[in-house]
Amino acid sequence: MARKNGFALGMNRDEKLSRARALPPQLHSIHGRHALFPFEPGGGTWVGVNDAGVGLALINWYAISTKLTEGATSRGEVVKMALAADSMAGVGKALAMLPLGKMNAFRLIGFFPAEGRVKEWRWNLHQLQARLHGWETNTWISSGFDELGAQKSRSDVFSSARQQISAGNLYWLRRLHRSHRPVRGAYSTCVHREDAATVSYTEMIVSPHTAKLHYQEGAPCCKATFSECSLKRI
């Protein structure tokens, strides 16, 4: 959700139930810049924010069917390394230094309140493409089950939710990520399948002076306690 010199982002993480649990957000130092992000046992991450107010979120791009089968570098390094940047240009430079040729397809969405823009980078195993988005409320969707079907279903739910009177506040954002519309299952925003599910919910809140991460382990539809950490913007 776009705000003046800030934003709020909610992100569900959908994974195989057999995958190891991630660890709650902590404060990290990335090439001299402070950043907050949850992380996997191997150290990689999928979402984070730094002390410049730059927020990054990575989703797998399942529509690209080609996959590396041997020697692939974890995509968990993408957000981690890019959080050293304080601008769109800086993130672009960080991506150029990564071994993208050894990574499977992904989409990286960057939020830059100081520049008032959102930028998306798409890696398809052959080329890194970028596109700019306006500073407005939006949604990005990924699914290893049926990406096109999930995008259609969840986009419809998002469009309907934007018409609600409460659209734009944090309760609305959390309610959206708990949603089981149209039915509880693979296509709902809060995913429930036999082999996979939404395993965590991360909420990023950036204001002119601070950046915060709220984190809930487990599906957001279940009652749980948020963990929270914050840092000052510089």
Structural overview:
- The protein is an alpha+beta fold.
- Helices cover 17% and strands 35% of the residues.
- The chain has helices spanning 76-82, 88-96, 147-161, 170-177, and strands at 2-3, 6-16, 23-30, 33-39, 47-50, 55-60, 106-112, 117-123, 128-133, 196-206, 210-217, 227-232.
- It has a 7-stranded antiparallel beta sheet, with helices on one face.
- A hairpin with a 4-residue loop joins β8 and β9 (128-133).
- The radius of gyration is 17 Å and the shape is globular.
- It starts with a strand and ends with a strand.
- The model has no long low-confidence stretch (mean pLDDT 95).
Index terms:
234 residues; alpha+beta; five-stranded antiparallel β-sheet; 17% helix
Q: Summed up, what is this model?
A:
This protein is of the alpha+beta class.
Number of strands: 12
- Average pLDDT, rounded to a whole number, is 95
Question: In sequence order, what are the helices and strands, one letter per element?
Answer: EEEEEEHHEEEHHEEE
Strand order of the largest sheet: 3-4-5-6-7-8-9
- Beta fraction: 35-45%
Computed over alpha carbons, the radius of gyration is 17 Å
Helical residue percent band: 10-25%
| Low-pLDDT regions | none
Question: What is the makeup of the main sheet?
Answer: 7 strands, antiparallel
How many helical elements? 4
Envelope shape = globular
Distance between the termini: 22 Å
By secondary-structure content and strand pairing, the structural class works out as: alpha+beta
